[in-house]
């Protein structure tokens, strides 16, 4: 057979639309002429005839024979495999030409989509920009998913702004724009862009919540019934998934095997400031502890040689695994209770739990609410953050710790050292109200109250920690419009943890934010001897400070409502003797009350785990659990002296 004539004939038939005839010639030709052009023409014919998967294979073969390492045929193969749902082959082909994806939105979409579904969002950064610049609405929707986590990444705000300009009707983009506006306290922008959301809610249309980021939803919505509707991507029938998981045979052992899942297993993270001592104190005669770690390597390298993570448990690195692979690694270790410490917070990989890694799965500590779309049996809290009224709004069963859900570490946390107001830039004769909470937690409602407090307490100043100069400008503009002079607001930068522990004691009163309280921030202030004023909340995120204040023996600093909060702040600004008494009580109670009693907390937590396992062994469904309290301590367990 004259191959040149045969190829020309096949090509001519293709041009005429005679695809079957062209294909017949190519099938004969392919035995002797396996070159790029033959496979490309084969792919084109197969595609015209509707055989996408076979066309993808032909393009892949053409790409292998192409001298161009960034072959357009390999690209076509990747796109076709992806369209056919063959993500394994699509990823294989796309990775061969991944450098093209930085300027090719279609190819970038393939890589980003697959990495995201595999739980590897850490790999999608190179593709975000080109996807966000595409005019394809499907690409815009994917870009929203890729932009939903790292609020501290400066490029995200720009990308969201550009996307929203092109697609103002895509609600997730509006919600994301609001997230970034709240981060820098741009209250005018928040008010303007939230109108469309409010109009939907006023009409009873709650569909807007189904595309809201669950974590950032908490920053504007204090109704836990509505919080439970916020969802990244509702897809998993949770009851069916839980039934399948629990039906898998499981071999219980004498010891209870606990697996903790997190990206925060490094000593400098706020979570470990709370949790580290509990991990060290777990009773190894009764419990086996494994840390399923997806912490970024840069944090581990920074602490290498200074922190012995083996004291926290056996470490299993799942960072480079897909969600399914990580779940398989968990299952191989026969974990009894898998505890996710992240939920819907930055860096979380809670969807690993949707692959059924353990017969019992729980959420604790990281996310202050129901972890929607994740297969969970239990949410660990306490009677303050998870009262009975919360039960209707959680798909998880509630485990109530007897005192506070929040652990604290008195052994590894630095004790506050003596300092002066001059050293931290505070006036000696003023009453200092302080808020060290994240700036995104500050809204106009709480700012109005703070301005009222300053008007009614003329000797008071407000001490705030800043995330950026832009935030400072926005805050001052708002406060000035409310009639408060700029010199009554003192801003401080972020500093080292040790410096922060020292400086916060120079304030007179911590004033909390709503609807998201200080969490670790509040316990740090109490550790530093600073009393904190809060309000009874309406969901987990707004009840945390109430829990912590009760655990340190200061329940009277929980105001019944926002008006009582304002009045109490004014009264305390004129009652230095009461502030002194609160500070003395905190220092005295810290060594005997539950808040900083890590040993007591560990025993309560372990009892919670034992109850969960006891029920499971009896083949009982998960149910709400109130963990019984140990008798109160009668002698101090530590002292600041």
From TrEMBL:
| Residue ranges of domain O-GlcNAc transferase C-terminal in the record | 253-406, 419-603
Keyword Protein transport carried by entry: no
Protein's recorded name: Predicted O-linked N-acetylglucosamine transferase, SPINDLY family
The biological processes this protein is annotated with in GO are: protein O-linked glycosylation
Q: Name one GO molecular function term.
A: protein O-acetylglucosaminyltransferase activity
Q: Could you tell me the keywords of this UniProt record? A: Repeat, TPR repeat, Transferase
Kindly give the InterPro entries that the UniProt entry links to this protein. OGT, OGT/SEC/SPY_C, TPR-like_helical_dom_sf
What the entry lists under Gene3D superfamilies is as follows: 3.40.50.11380, Glycogen Phosphorylase B, Tetratricopeptide repeat domain
Indicate the transmembrane segments per the record.
none
Q: Where is this region: Disordered?
A: 400-424
Pathway(s) the chain acts in: Protein modification; protein glycosylation
Q: Which domain of life is it from?
A: Bacteria
